[in-house]
Amino acid sequence: MYTIAALYHFSPITDLPAMQTLVRNKCESLQIKGTLLLAREGINGTVAGSKASISQLLEFLKSRPEFSGLEWKLSESPDEPFSKLKVRLKKEIVTMGQPDVDPRGAVGQYVEAEDWNDFINADDVVVIDTRNDYEVAIGTFEGAVDPKTKSFREFPAWWEQNKKRFENQRIAMFCTGGIRCEKSTSYLKSQGVEDVFHLKGGILKYLENVPQEESTWNGECFVFDGRVSVGHGLEVGPHQMCFGCRRPIMPEDVKRDGFELGVSCHQCFDETTEQDKARFRERQKQIDLTKKRTSQSS
């Protein structure tokens, strides 16, 4: 059984290359795989390994002054969620394209998962899903507004175009694990919106803590690892991944026109060129060869 840790923390990092080396070396020594992003504003990512290894990594990160307030959520998977380790340097740990937005200065008020249902049922509360369109498509909260954004970068422009719809209402936002809401609520605060709230710990904390019979969540929650989606109790959902566009697909979608393993699905077949598809086929060929070699040597 693999333990998965989704983590983030906003805190200034002065020497990014040194921190990258430090974190990568620690993960490699613990045989941890996954993706961690480092930027001058902090750390974000999802990693997996043995329970003991993940515990040691979290203790190591917490011991660093940069990450003393680290937030994380744990879950489990019988299958290895990641094939390799990536520790990357980025301009932002979650890309919004708003350099003046600083969650360390001001964010929305947190709403605990157990209090979320009552809060969003209030007449003066509007609920906004801050995730991308392909994430919303497989699951969201009842009555939530879908901005239909293809990337988080589009959220500020969407808000500017739609903000008059939400005057005199309290704004409640949610995302997968909480980090996008740190920025989206901070952005709204910078725009003069006072009554801004967000789901603490995100959808993952809600699905973990709120019984299914009391839930107002419909569908599955997309996650950025090999599980693809999870449901209540963080049980692995039915979705698979199209490795051409990285969108979730259902098992029956492999029978639809446009699907080719590692290359395309019905959602992205018309979005890529023949050159793209040839490149994806070569990538899938190398993946298949690696799997074959691994099985022969084991």
Model description:
The protein has 3 domains: 2-89, Alpha-Beta Plaits (2-Layer Sandwich); 109-219, Rhodanese-like domain (Oxidized Rhodanese, domain 1), CATH 3.40.250; 239-298, no CATH class. The chain is 31% helix and 22% strand. The protein is α/β, with parallel strands linked by helices and 298 residues long. Strand 14 and strand 15 form a beta hairpin.
Structural topology:
Layout: E1 2-10, H1 16-29, E2 33-39, E3 42-49, H2 51-63, E4 71-77, E5 85-89, E6 109-111, H3 113-120, E7 125-129, H4 133-136, E8 139-141, H5 155-162, E9 170-174, H6 179-190, E10 196-199, H7 202-209, E11 217-219, E12 221-222, E13 229-230, E14 240-241, E15 248-249, H8 274-297
Instruction: List the strand order in the largest sheet.
Output: 4-1-3-2-5
Low-confidence stretches: none
Determine the oligomeric state from the structure: single chain
Rg: 20 Å
The helicity comes to 25-40%
| Total of DSSP H or I helical runs spanning 4+ residues | 8
Largest sheet: 5 strands, mixed
CATH architecture descriptor name of the largest domain:
3-Layer(aba) Sandwich
The total strand number stands at: 15
Task: Give a brief rundown of this model.
This protein is an alpha/beta fold. The chain has 8 helices and 15 strands. Helices cover 31% and strands 22% of the residues.
